[in-house]
Amino acid sequence: MGTANQRIYHIHGSHVDRFRSEDGLSVNKVRSFYEDHEGGIWAVTTRGIESFHRPQVVTFSTREGLSVDNVVSVVVSSDDTVWLANGNSLDSIKDGHISSVRSGAGLPGNEVTALFADHAGQLWVGVDYDLFLYKQGRFSRVVRSDGSSTRFIVGMTEDINHDIWAEVSGSDKELIRIRNLKVVEEYPAAVIPSARLLAADSHGAIWLGLRDGNLARFRNGQADVFAFPHSESDEVRQVAVNSDDSVFAATAYGLIAWRNGKTQTLTSRNGLPCDAVIGMNWDHQGALWLYMECDLVRIDKEEVQKWWNAPTARVITRVFDSFDGLQSGKADNNPTGQSSDGRLWFANKVVLQMIDPSHLFRNEIPPPVHVESVAVDGKQFLPRGQFVYRPWYVI
Predict the structure, then answer these.
(1) Of 135, 224, 245, 324, which shows the fewest CB atoms inside 10 Å?
(2) Is the residue at 340 inside a domain?
């Protein structure tokens, strides 16, 4: 709804959005509207034409109510609460409402370092050099056998027995197993390779995204390493196990994967817009989504299978960029999550972003094209009728 002097109003249901000159509108006086084939709204004002469109990728920042703009991790619990590790605050989004547990106001420390939601919907929260179970508004501390802290936690997962595994960073890196809020097993870096991220498969193994950029499978007290060609400085940013127990990991040199003993790497040589992958997830149609440093990419499951069959194959992708609302970033600890309704959530170390794969829109109507002039070897021609320049040039 346009007004003579009081800005633009967008009314949907019981909610009203207001757009003013303070929000970027050139002037508050609006004369008319037009809707294009992509659902974009064009408003004619006394100073020109304004364009409004609903972004495919929605951003949540301090402007929308987050405590700060420092979102380093996102997980979604079984009740569809979206939890954020956001600097000195544990933020959450539930039914459109944002809440925060901040340092000095309920958070048992200064900085949230890691998050994990288990099968029961309970939230495990790394805060400073401790790990806590957050349940019904209370933080319960995880301790070692001597009562000391777990130290700095960077990655967590849950095995088939519902034990929690966590990777400890710092000078004494190790993998620990947690049961009933106590550390029951410890595996130092001298026993298994140092990792950052963890994931569990359906056979009881724990998969480790290693600091050297490779993958390892830990089972029965032993680790098997699967190496990938890359530079030594590339760490794994996320590791995830798919429903068929194939394992994927996000790295700066591409998407690496393991299936039935076979390893492959998906990169720009396969059709990706760049190499650096921040995180990945799968939608309800089985399509693979890659949150990358350059773009957000969707790959149909048939294209992923084509790549499994032929590692050098080029895959067909759908790319979402800044024109779709994407803000690139570089989070490296649980950077993606999924709601039960299929919405995908992404942390980029600054803001939280969301896309709904079931409500994507695309204008399939090609725009009208009018050829006004033709230039061949610097010579201008009028496009009248059929223009022939050489036997192999026909316009």
Answers:
(1) 224
(2) yes
